Amino acid sequence: MAVYKISDDISLYRYGKPYDTEAVVVRELEKAGDEPLKYLQEIEGKGVNLTYTMDRDDIIFGLGENMGGINKRGREYISFCTDDYEHTEGKRSLYGAHTFFIVDGRDTFGVFIDYPGKFKIDAGFTHRDILEIEIPTGDVDIYIIEGEDKNQIVKNFRELVGRSYIPPKWGFGYQQCRWSYLNAGEVEQVVDAMRERGIPCDTVYLDIDYMVDFKDFTVDEKKFPKFPQFVERMRERGIRLIPIIDAGVKIEAGYDVYDEGEEKGYFCTTNEGDTFVGAVWPGRCAFPDFLNPDTRRWWGNLYTRLTDVGIEGFWNDMNEPALFYTPDHLEEVIEEVKSSQGENLDIYSFFKFKDRVVELSNREEDYKKFWHRDKDGRRINHHEVHNLYGYNMTRAASEGFARNRSEERTLLFSRASSIGAHRYGGIWTGDNKSWWSHILLNIQQMPGLSMCGFLYSGGDTGGFGDHADAELVTRWTQFSIFTPLLRNHAGGTRPQEPYSFDDDSAEYMKGAIELRYAMIPYLYSEFMKAVREDRGYMMPLAFEYDDSRSRGVEDQLLCGESLMLTPVYTQNARGRYIYLPEDMLCWRGRDPRNREIHRLKKGEHYLNIAIDEVPFFIRRDRMMVMGKPLNYVEEEVIRELNVVVNLESKAVYDFYDDDGKTTNEADYSLMRFTVRRKGEEVTAKVEQVAGETQVVVVNFEIYAGEDQVVKRKVYL
Ligand code: GLC
């Protein structure tokens, strides 16, 4: 084991010869002496095995989108990007390999395991007090990250792995998806319905059926005639269309993407050097070798086929990569099925038979059948670097945008990912279900994602699989209005758009979505500060309040520096229990105009929350900055801000804004709002700290003391 000192707070312990995942952006390494491994203990065994003995109340935070609560303790996690559409409680892997966590308690430290293959983190599953990391091979980079508190540890980690992706500001608008809106007419119906009802909306998605036979970078002219004009017409209505791009490329002679990939050797190969074949939506596909920089360059340029006709955003999918089957294994199974004909299948043989068929997809054996050629020209088996596939697909797209539309931001998010991918795009949390438990799952996934740098993220609001009812979609929307990616998505279920149920529910969702648009000034400011300062966007309470009650909270979140969220996630609820770690201001309402604000004392409460109400809390000496609802983000420039302040003595807020479109980072506006109380006197000040603003007036609504409400208007 070799030890490197990255900074005072970060040490790298290198075992064997790890694969260079490029997750870490610090490339110069300074060798340290023979320091022993901090916190963790090595134990004998195959590969690298590290353990840590936890105190009874130690908490494990992080691990990205993994299931298992905000505190990840008590479970086992397998780091292996997995296409799994059943996010049931026992699942040990989802689509992301997010291998950074913080142990918090007797010792507080961060661990980042930089390893691209499959490995296990036993977070107190086998033995409640033992954390164990098991790397099957002897080659891994273990980073131990310290800091004065948890927020600092997150910041140190994020500086190590590089700055998070920035979407266009319209990516903070409401987004509507379905598998699938089958043609231009169906897309237009969605837009008509949203606009007629005045429900704000910025994007509509094109799922796989927009393509010709599921062939990437094609558009079916029969379903979408005159596509460029259609894109343009939608843009005029404030709608961007976001097509899906899948990892598998249909094998079909004459399909130019396949032909070129084949000719230039851009696809993954078998051990014998032939193009590897696996099946996804179009049937047999080839898989671009995203580890090869030439492939990435080629692939990244293919997106221009769509950006050239006005497309400004994409979602990359099936990039674990998902494999429905490989033809050779399918043949084996078919033979077995045939040979079972007429057999008496008993308890042993029947289940074996059934499993053979059920387990055709995403088999580890199939992941061992293909090879990459990486940046160093090295041939490497896919299974060893499995978790890098989605990451490098996102990277290919992002590098393409940096070359081909360098001035403008492009919306981009992926399903599979690993640490490093956060620099290139966001992620969504994949195929959840319209289950109440999955609202809670979504709430609990967000802080882990924030810690790992996946700031632009969110779940399929309303649930992807299974049929949703109006109440569930309403409650879920009321939570998702705080997540950077706010997208309603369902596949093959009853319609789930906000207007698909009854008129009342449509009004409730409209109110929540209007509130979202009104909150964008704050949400965007907090998002951008989280990117620029390597901070979290949605975080556990314990990162700001260290009392033992706050440390155990699993269903409330901090959102940016000012807000605490208490979403409703149970059916037929009329409210919920909440915990306030300090006196806070409760904002509740059905939309930005119809709301009430009152003070609530530190402690436990039961809060009535009617079905049309969204509550959130403003922390002490913090403020919430609001604009107004719009039909779509770019409809108007916000010139008037309304700032609600929870004032005890002095509150300062740095309000970040920029044009939200260009990649030019030099042009931004930073305003500082300072609100103070001295005795009975309350003052509000606005300073332009950097850049210029188009805001002309800031209205302060200041809640000072028990029941004093002071209004101040500041003209600029
Ligand atoms: C996958 C995606 C889902 C998409 C579907 C069809 O299941 O996760 O979001 O709608 O494929 O493309």
TrEMBL record:
UniProt keyword rRNA-binding present: no
GO biological process assignments: carbohydrate metabolic process
Signal peptide range in chain numbering: none
Record's keyword annotation contains Hydrolase: yes
Xref: Gene3D superfamilies: 2.60.40.4040, Glycosidases, glycosyl hydrolase (family 31)
A Pfam family annotated for this UniProt entry: Glyco_hydro_31_2nd
Domain Glycoside hydrolase family 31 N-terminal residue range list: 45-122
Domain Glycosyl hydrolase family 31 C-terminal positions: 538-621
Keywords: Glycosidase, Hydrolase
Boundaries of every Glycoside hydrolase family 31 TIM barrel domain copy: 165-525
InterPro entries in alphabetical order: Gal_mutarotase_sf_dom, GH, Glyco_hydro_31_AS, Glyco_hydro_31_C, Glyco_hydro_31_N_dom, Glyco_hydro_31_TIM
Taxonomy, superkingdom: Bacteria
GO molecular function per UniProt: carbohydrate binding; hydrolase activity, hydrolyzing O-glycosyl compounds
Family, as annotated: Belongs to the glycosyl hydrolase 31 family.
Name assigned to this protein: Alpha-glucosidase
